[in-house]
Amino acid sequence: MNRNYIFLTLLMLVLAAGTVFLTMDDEPNQVDPEILLQEIIQPTRYVSTDQVAKMIIQGDPSLMLIDVRSEDDFQGYSLPRSVNIPLDSLLTADNLSYLGIPGTKVVFVSDDDIRADQMWVLTKRLGYKGTYVMRGGLNCWMQTIIEPEQPSDDASYADMETYSFRKGAQIYFTGAEEETSDGAKVEVQVQKREKTNVALGGC
Q1: CATH architecture observed for domain 3-141
Q2: How distant, in Å, are the alpha carbons of 18, 37, 41, 70, 117 from that of 11?
Q3: What are the pLDDT digits (tens) for 116-160?
């Protein structure tokens, strides 16, 4: 098993144990710690950077991006449509109002997985559903969406489809232009709400 995954799992177990001591007598939907521990070891809470990019491009109204980094980091760079709720600022009425909205998919974002995972554990313990973590965080976003690596010539069709999507997403988010074989630059339009069967991957 991947050493990073083992470390993260152990960290999540410690965090989950800590949430047991939260005072939530007025929270009837709080999750039992044992159930929470079972959910922690499942990878279903993760969504890929490709999935997040596609939802932003399509203008998916169900997407709620919550950046859990500090305000300074958020001001330095953030994803479109994201709101900044630092990890230590969640437990206020205003910030909690972003959670538990029917039909909304809340995706937590940080530089990597760690702080976003911590926020996920806390909100799950509080009983909120429909919460996820962007796998790899903004570090992975930079690698896959902002600066996607071109596959080798013998790459699979699925890998080429993923790269094609990422190049389009790169242009959408950065305003970059694509060079043709003769060196000329052309603008590439990324259609919103385009329904395709793009193979979505992650870090």
Answers
A1: 3-Layer(aba) Sandwich (3.40)
A2: 11, 11, 11, 21, 9
A3: 999 998 898 888 889 999 999 999 999 999 999 999 999 999 999
